[in-house]
Amino acid sequence: MTTPPLLALDGLRAGYGRVEVLHGVSLTVPEGRMVAMVGPNGAGKSTLMSAVMGLLPRRGGTVRYRDAPAGSTGQMVAAGALLVPESRALFTDMSVEDNLLLGFLRRRRAGERDVRGAMAEVFAIFPRLAERRRQLAGTLSGGERQMLALGRALMGGPRLLLLDEPSLGLAPLIVREIFRVLAELRGRGLSILLVEQNVRAALQISDYGYVLELGQVVAEGPSATLAADPRVVETYLGQRRRDV
Amino acid sequence: MDPFIFFALLQDGITTGAIYLLLAIGLLIVFSATRVIFVPQGDLLAFGALTAAGLQSGHVPATLWLLDGLSAAALLASLTGGVRAAGRALLVWGVYPAVVSLASVWLARREIPAVSILLALAIVTPMGPLIWRFAYRPMADASVLALLILSMALHFVLIGLGLVFFGPEEASVPALSTANFTIGALDISGQSLCVLGAAVALVVGLGWFFGATVQGKALRAAASDPLGARLVGIDAGATGSLAFGLAAFIAALAGVLIGALTPLSYDAGFEIGLKGFVAAIMGGLVSYPMAAAGALLVGVLESLGSFWASAYREVIVFTLLIPVLLWLSLRRGSDEDRA
Amino acid sequence: MKPWLAVAATVAALGIVPALLPAFYVTLFGYVGLASLVALGLVLLTGISGQTSFGQASFVGLAAYATTLLTKFAGAPPIAGLVVGLAVTGSVAWLLGLITARLSGHFLALVSVAWGISFFSLFGTIPLLRGFNGIGGIPPLTLGALSAANPRVNLAVIWAVVAAIMLLSANLLDSRIGRAIRTLNGARLMGESVGIDTARLSRAVFVIAALYAGLAGFLFAHFQRFISPTPFSLGASIDYLFMVIIGGAAFLWGAPVGAILVVVLRDQFNDWIPRLTGQPGDYEALVFSLVVILLLQRAPGGLMPLLLRLRPRKRPDVAAETASDATPALSIAPTGAPTGAPTGAPTAAAGAPGPELLAVESVTRHFGGLAANQDVSFAVRAGEIVALIGPNGAGKTTLFNVISGVLPPSAGRVRLFGTAGGHLAPRRIAALGLARTFQHVKLLGGRSVLENVALGAHASGRAGVLRCMLRLDRKEERRILADARAQATLVGLGDVLDRPAGDLPLGQQRVVEIARALCLRPRLLLLDEPAAGLRLQEKQRLALLLGQLRAEGMGVLLVEHDMDFVMQLADRVVVMDFGQKISEGLPAQVQADPLVREAYLGSVA
Fold first, then answer.
1. B86-100, C31-45, C142-156, C524-538: which range is least confident on average?
2. In this model, does residue C488 exceed pLDDT 60?
3. Looking at CA atoms only, how far is residue C601 from chain A in angstroms?
4. Which of B43, C104, C387, C478 could cross-link B158 (Cys pair, CB 3.0–4.6 Å)?
5. Is residue A231 less than 8 Å (CB to CB) from chain C?
6. How far off is chain C from A117, nearest CA to CA, in Å?
7. Do A239 and C564 touch (CB under 8 A)?
8. B232-279 residue pLDDT tens
C-alpha cells in the first residue's frame, strides 16, 4: 500500500463511565471505498462512531484520519468527517431548507458560497426533500428524516461519510431507496463507513465488511465473502440447535 | 376608578411590561442555548443605565475599566489557542475595548445623550460573552441547578461591583424623547413610545436575526439539537458567547430605556430582572409569545397593584406565578429522570 | 455505636467550647448552629433528593414571627410557639410543595425565589409585624423553672438541637425511607417501579427541610430576642444554599462545615477587607461571592469530599478489584447439563400452562403520528418464559413501558393478573406483583449493592419518616436487609454486597437490578436485555436462575438480543418489527420463519 488509508483505527478502546464497550477495535477505510460494520444490537457499533468522531473520549489505541491523529469533534467536522448519527439529530423545529443550510456551514467557513448549487444537488438525489423544503423537519416521516439527515451531511461536502444505522426503523421500500442512494454515492467515489443491522443490504453494496460482536471484531473480509459466511447469520439469529 | 388614572396606569404598565418582555427574551435565548438561568442579566441592566448616566454627567464610568480588565484576561487566555484564535481574539478583546475606551474618554466630556447611550451599550454588551467565558464555560457540563447557584453568586459579584463603581446613589439616564402627546384628554409620554418602539424594533430585529441569518440559525440549531449542531460544525463556545452577548445587549438597552423613566440604583436590576423571569416562566422557559403575554400582564398588574395596594405590589406579581405553575404542572407530565 | 458517639462528641464540642470563649463568639457560634439546622434541611432537599430551594429563610421567618407573636403578645409559653411555628411552616411548605410537585428542579428553584421575595415583603409590610423596626423583648426559652436567658446556656440548647437533628437525619437516611429519598434524585422511574410514591415523598422531604428551618427560626427568635425581616431575606436564603454547596451537599456533615465557613468567612471579611482597602465599603459580599464562584468551579462537590480524602481510609486495592471482577456474577453452582435443559424439547413448555398473568390485548401506542406499537397481542402465563425479540426500533421497550404502566396505551389494554385492565401507575402495578429491570441500568451508583437490592423490598415495609428517624424501624429494617441479602446471594452477588453498585461491571449491575426486582416477590418479572454485557458463563448462570424461577411458577417476559440465550431459554418467542407482532411461537418455529429472517437480516436491496 502506497497511499495511507483515509481512516485507520488501531486497537481503539472506548466506553461510558466505568464501562468499557469497545475492547480494542482495528479497522481501515481506504480512500474511495465503502466499508460496512455489521453486528447485532449492543455490539458497540454506535460507540465506535462516537469515538471516531471524538464525541466520546478515546481511551486507548489510535484513530488516524487523513494520516494524522484524529482530533476533537470540531476538528473532525472541519476536516470533512461527517457523521449521520442513529438519532438523526435533526433540528426538528427548523425547516428542511434551514437544516440543509446549516449542513453547508462547514463549506461556508472554507469560503464556498454556492449554497443553492449544493442544495440543488441534494434535491436531485432526494426530490422528496425539495417538495418539503418549507416544512419543519419535525413533521417529516421517518424515511424523509433519514433523507434529510443524509442530505444535511452531503451539504457539508464530506471527505468521509459515517452512517450509523441509516435503515433503522424504516419501511422496506424506503430502505431500498436509501441503499440505492448509498450505492450511487459509492459509485461517485465517496468514502463511507457504514454501520448497519441490515446485514444483507450492507454487505451487498459495500466493498469490505467487519463483523463486530461484544466490542470486538470477530470476522472481516471482502463483503461478498462475508455475506456467504454462515457465522454472520449465527451472530444474528443464534445457532440453529436442531434442524426442523 | 377615574378612567384617566386607569389609562395612565395602563400606559405605565405596558411600558414596564415591554421592558420585562425584553428581559424575558434575553433569558430565553441564553437558557435555550446554554441551559444557564441568567440571573445577573438584571444587574447588567443596572450597569447599562448607570454607565449611560455616568457618561452623561461627564465621568468615565468604572464599568469601562472592568471591560478592559476582563478583555485583557480573555486576550491572555486565548494565547494558548494557536495563531488564528489569537489573531481573532486580538481583534475582539484587544482592538474593540481599546476603541471603546478611547471613544469614552474622549466623548464623555461632551455629554451628548445619544452618544452616552450608545457608548453604554458598547461597554456593557461584551460583558455577556466575558461572563460566559470566565464564569459559566468552565462548568458547562454542570446541572441546571449548579449553574443557577453560580448565577446567584455572580449576581452578588455584580452587585458588589456596582456599589464600588457607582456608589449607592440613584441616577437617571437622559430620555430619548421629552415630548408629550395629547390625544383627546389622554397624555402619552414620548419616552413611553420610545420604549415601545425599541421593544418592537428589537423583537423585529431578533426575528430577522433568527429567521434570516446563518448565525441566528446556528444559534437556534444549537438550542434545538446540541448533537446535530456539533456535527455540522457549530462550536458550543461560540454559540454561548453569542447568546450571552445578545442577552447583555438586551439588558443594557432595557437599562437605558427604563433609566429614563425612573432613577435606578446599582441594585435595582435584580427585581426588574426577576419580573422578566416571571414572564419567561409563564412561557415555560420555551415559548416566546407566551412570555410576551406574561410580560405585559406582569407590567399592567404591577402598575394597577401599585395604585391599589402599593405595599403588596411584589407579592401580587409573584402570586401570579401560582396559577400559571399549577397549569404548567397539570399540562406536562413530570419530567423526571431527564438530566 | 460509633457514628452516634462521633456526632455527639463533635457537636457537643462545638457547643461547649465556644461557651468558654468571649461573648462575641457565643453569638457567632449560635448563628453557626442555627444556620447548620437550615442547611441540614437543604442537604436532604438539595444534596440527597436533588431539589433546590431559594426560599428557606422564609420558613425561618414564618416560625420566628409565629413564636414571637404568641410568646410576646399572647403570653403563651415558648413550647406553644414551637408547636404553632412548626405547624405554620409545615403547612405553608406542604402547600408550596403541592403547587410545584410535578415541575422539574429549576422551576421549583425559580419559584422559591419568588416566594422568598414575597414573604420578605410581607414580613416588612404587615403592620402587626412592625416592619423593619422589628420586635424586641421576646421572652427567652423556658422549661418549667429552667430558663435559657443566659446566651451560653442558649448556645448549648442550640447545639443540642443541632446534634439531635443530625442524628435524626442520619437515622432517616439509613433506613427504608432514606433509600427511597435517594431515588428522587434522577431515578424516580426506578423508584416508582419498586412501589415508591415519589411525588408524595419529595413533598415530604420538602416539608422536613422547611421544618428544620422553622426550628431554627423558633430558636433564633428566642436566642436573639429581637426579630426584624432582614435575616429572612432572599439573600439569607441564598447564603444557606451557599453553605450547603460549599460544605458538600451530599453529606450531612456538609451542613455544619459549610455553616461554619460561611458565617466565619463573612465575619472575617467584614473585619479585614475594610482594613485592607482603607474604606468601609461593601467589598465583603463581592469577595465572598468570588470565593463561592471559585469553589463551585474547582470543587463542585463541596469541601466534604476533600476532607474525607484527608482521612486515611482503607480502599479496595486494584488487585482486589480485578479479582472480584473475574468472579462470575451468577455463582449458582452450574450443573452438569447446559442451560435450558427443561426447555430442550419444544413440547416441554406446553406441559405445564399456569394461570394467565399478563394479557396484552390489541395494544397500540402512538408518539405523535408515529405508531411505536400497533395492535399487539400476546399473553404470559405463570411458569413460562416468553421472549420478546425484534430488531432495533421495533417497539419492544415501548411495549415494556406500556405493560409496566410508565406509558398508557393509546388503544387496547393490558390486563395483569386477571384485573380489568385500566391504566395503573407503575407503583400500583408493582404492588400487584410485577417487577422489572431497565434497559439502561437504573441504580444508585454511589450506594452499596445491598442498599440497591433492598430498595426492591420497599413496599414490604411500613415504617414512615418519624419511625425511621427515631430508629423504631429496626426490626423491620433487619428483615428487609436480610431479605435483600438473601436475594443478592441467590443471584451470586454475595461477595460484593458492600461495594458501590456503580463500581461493578455493567453485566453485574444488571444482575443487581434482577436481585432488586426479586425482592418485590413478583409473580411476573419483566427483564429488559438482562444478558447484555454478561460473559458466557454468567449468561449460563442467569439462564439457570431464570429456569429455577420458572419452575417455582414465576412468569418471565424478557426483551433480549442475544439469540443463543433466547432460543435456549424461552418457552415461546414473540417477534416484533415496526411496532407489530410479526411472529409468535416456539423458538425453532420462529427461527425458521422467513418473515423473522427478513426482519433481522434485511431483504436484499
1. C142-156
2. yes
3. 5
4. B43
5. no
6. 30
7. yes
8. 999 888 899 999 999 999 999 999 998 888 889 988 888 888 888 888
Q: Distance between CA atoms of C424 and C403, rounded to whole angstroms?
A: 10
Question: What's the predicted TM-score (pTM) here?
Answer: 0.83
Is the alpha carbon torsion for C495, C500, C503, C509 positive or negative? Answer: positive
State whether C215 and C355 are in the same domain. Answer: no
Alpha carbon of B141 to those of A90, B35, B136, B245, B264: distances in Å? 22, 10, 9, 20, 36
CA gap C79, C75 in Å, rounded = 11
Q: What sign has the CA pseudo-torsion C189, C191, C197, C202? A: negative
Distance CA C555, CA C526 (A): 9
Q: Are residues C48 and C171 part of one domain?
A: yes
* Nearest-angstrom CA–CA distance, B11 and B299: 10
Cβ–Cβ under 8 Å, residues C364 and C371: yes
- Other beta carbons within 10 Å of C144: 6
Number of structural domains, chain C?
3
The alpha carbon of residue C219 and the mean position of all alpha carbons in its chain are separated, in whole angstroms, by 30
Best CA proximity match to A27, nearest among A58, A53, A1, A62: A62
Please give the pLDDT value at position B330. Answer: 64
From the list C506, C565, C605, the residue facing A179 with the nearest CB is: C605
pLDDT at C278: 67
Same domain, C418 and C529: yes
Task: Retrieve residue B307's grid coordinates.
Answer: 395604585
Q: What is the largest CA-CA distance in chain B?
A: 68
ipTM: 0.91
Assess if residue A155 is contained within a domain.
Answer: no
Grid cell for residue A173: 421500500
Contact B104, B119 (CB under 8 A): yes
E-strand ranges in C130-172 read 135-136, 142-143, 146-147
Using CA atoms, how far apart are residues C349 and C42, in angstroms rounded to an integer?
55
Q: Is A236's CB within 8 Å of C532's CB?
A: no
Neighbours of chain C (3+ CB pairs under 8 A): A, B
Strand partners, C585: C573
Is residue C131 a part of any domain in this protein? yes
d(CA C259, CA C262): 5
Element spanning C296, H or E: helix C283-298
- For residue A56, the enclosing domain spans 1-80+199-244
Same domain (yes/no): C77, C205: yes
DSSP track, B182-205: EETTEEEEHHHHHHHHHHHHHHHH
Residues A23-60: pLDDT tens digits?
899 999 999 999 999 887 667 888 899 999 999 989 98
C420 grid coordinates = 380489568
Q: What DSSP string runs through C49-91?
A: T----S-HHHHHHHHHHHHHIIIIIS---HHHHHHHHHHHHHH
Are C42 and C152 members of one domain?
yes
Through-space distance between the first and last CA atoms of chain B, rounded to whole angstroms: 50
Of the three residues C234, C269, C286, the one that is the final residue of a domain is C234
Q: CA–CA separation, C59 vs B323, rounded Å?
A: 22
Cell 413530570 appears where? Answer: B334
How many distinct structural domains can be found in chain A? Answer: 1
- Has residue C442 been placed in a domain? no
Touching subunits for chain B (3+ Cβ pairs under 8 A): A, C
Phi, psi (deg, nearest 5) at residue B2: -60, 125
CA distance C234 to B332: 29
Q: Tell me whether A181 touches chain B (CB under 8 Å).
A: no
Quote the mean pLDDT of chain B: 84
Q: Which domain holds residue C482?
A: 448-517
- Cα A77 to the center of its chain, rounded Å: 14
Residue in chain A nearest C393 by alpha carbon: A169
Which of C234, C250, C274 is the last residue in one of the domains? C234
Cell readout for C424 is: 395503573
Backbone conformation region of residue A220, classed left if phi is above 0, alpha if psi is from -120 to 50, else beta: beta
